[in-house]
């Protein structure tokens, strides 16, 4: 199966985006229900931002209290606040960094929050929560902030998790106010269990035409992943099969230890070589590509053909998938195999 995060269809997203932008929570909910949308799908293929994040960041809500019902609805429908966007952060990271989102953060923590997920720099939720205390003013909401911080800690926060700058929460605690330090000390005195990260994050492709890739896959590749009966479908299926096999072998670190395994491995590589040649020859013989594009196709497929083991870099497969999309745009009518 092609490894693409789900995208909300463009036609549906236009109306949903407008409802969220206007702060019209009932209308947004109605669209989700009418179209049975996956609430963890992404709104576009640039930032790959999930719907929950779009609702959190919308300027359309007059107050944060007005925003909460839509967030609550999406969470109840299965939206996962732990899912990152392509820029490397999730809803928890955003809410922990901005004071106005304290009640949204409180809500997210009730939905299986994976508090030790690092953002793009490796900073977890408690890092941002404690650092924020150094800048937050004294005020009526202080009790709320302390309660939310306590909630984060009891979800198994790791105070020693370092980001890429070598900073962690414990270092910020040295500068924190006494009430924050006392709260953390009481929590640590109970010898809490630090929770490992369990969320499986989406893999964001480096593709120029992700929506088109999904369309070709859905229209031309059989649901069971078997051979396609069109050139367009079989080209995409073949490249994704090559990608999947490369990942499988790279992840399992398989090495032949017996003669039988060595023979099986050699046979498998011959099959992969034939598949790569099929992709190369089909694309080049189509006459669709200019000299520069043809050179790229030859270069990328040659890296698959010549390599003695599976080539694990996604860049090779992404380039070939992009070329298949170009081929499809110039040959949209199904070509029987």
UniProtKB/TrEMBL annotation:
Q: Where are the ANK repeats?
A: 87-120
Reply yes or no: does the keyword GTP-binding apply: no
> Which keywords does the record carry?
ANK repeat
The protein's superkingdom reads: Bacteria
Coiled coil region boundaries: none
InterPro entries xref list: Ankyrin_rpt, Ankyrin_rpt-contain_sf
- What is this protein called in UniProt? Ankyrin repeat domain-containing protein
Q: Which organism is it from?
A: Puia dinghuensis
Presence of the UniProt keyword Heme in the record = no
Kindly list the residue ranges recorded as spanning the membrane: none
Q: What is the lineage of its organism?
A: Bacteria, Pseudomonadati, Bacteroidota, Chitinophagia, Chitinophagales
């Amino acid at each position: 199966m092609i490894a693409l995060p789900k995208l909300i269809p463009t036609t549906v997203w236009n109306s949903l985006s407008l409802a969220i932008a206007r702060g019209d929570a009932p209308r947004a909910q109605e669209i989700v229900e009418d179209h049975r949308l996956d609430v963890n799908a992404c709104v576009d293929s640039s930032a790959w931002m999930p719907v929950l994040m779009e609702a959190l960041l919308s300027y359309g809500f007059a107050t944060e209290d007005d925003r909460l019902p839509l967030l609550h609805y999406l969470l109840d429908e299965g939206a996962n606040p732990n899912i990152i966007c392509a820029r490397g952060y999730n809803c928890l990271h955003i809410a922990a960094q901005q004071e106005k989102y304290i009640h949204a953060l409180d809500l997210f923590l009730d939905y299986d929050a994976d508090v030790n997920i690092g953002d793009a720099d490796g900073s977890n939720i408690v890092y941002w929560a404690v650092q924020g205390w150094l800048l937050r003013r004294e005020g009526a909401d202080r009790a709320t902030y302390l309660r939310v911080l306590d909630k984060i800690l009891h979800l198994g926060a790791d105070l020693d998790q370092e980001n890429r700058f070598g900073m962690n929460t414990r270092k910020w605690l040295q500068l924190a106010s006494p009430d924050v330090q006392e709260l953390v000390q009481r929590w640590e005195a109970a010898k809490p269990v630090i929770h490992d990260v369990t969320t499986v994050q989406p893999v964001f492709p480096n593709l120029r035409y992700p929506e088109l890739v999904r369309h070709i896959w859905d229209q031309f590749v059989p649901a069971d992943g078997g051979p396609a009966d069109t050139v367009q479908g079989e080209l995409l299926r073949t490249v994704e099969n090559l990608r999947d096999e490369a990942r499988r072998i790279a992840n399992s670190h398989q090495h032949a230890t017996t003669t039988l395994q060595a023979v099986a491995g050699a046979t498998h590589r011959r099959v992969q070589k034939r598949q790569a040649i099929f992709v190369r020859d089909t694309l080049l013989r189509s006459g669709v590509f200019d000299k520069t594009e043809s050179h790229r196709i030859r270069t990328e497929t040659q890296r698959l053909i010549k390599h003695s083991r599976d080539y694990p870099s996604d860049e090779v497969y992404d380039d070939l998938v992009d070329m298949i999309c170009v081929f499809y745009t110039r040959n949209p009518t199904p070509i029987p195999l």
